[in-house]
What we know:
Elements: E1 17-26, E2 29-38, H1 39-64
Antiparallel strand pairs: 1-2
Amino acid sequence: MMAGQERSLRSTSDVPMHTAVLRARAGSASLRARVAISTGGLLAVAGLVVGTVLSAAVVVAVATRKLPRGAMPARMKRSRW
């Protein structure tokens, strides 16, 4: 850091945390999970999920579209229809 600059750090006790707890049981197997995340972390995870879902939707749309006749290269043949 340069002289005269002040860096503001908040302690972890000042940061509001969101928590979730999961308890599941199936027969003799059981699962317990607890997660705590800050608001900034929650927004970052939401951004990653949104990006993943949108990119998957684009891939599915491109992969399932039906091309017009004559749009495929001559040596490729259609696998459907």
